[in-house]
Target: Transmembrane protein
Amino acid sequence: MASAEGGHGGGPGDGGRDEGLGESVEKRRLAEEKKNERYVWWSLGYFLFGIHVVAFVMIYAVTHAK
Model:
């Protein structure tokens, strides 16, 4: 019986510690999601910029062709 009561049992203070760890994991996940979303938007911006550069080069080539 002594081993069941002692050690790292579920005391009143344990719930707060677990919730704190959960919040930490959630904050880390949200920060990583924000970073990934920012990376996606930058990639989309570079892609669209590249498409426009190619389009302008093609327009220039067609208008200046002999």
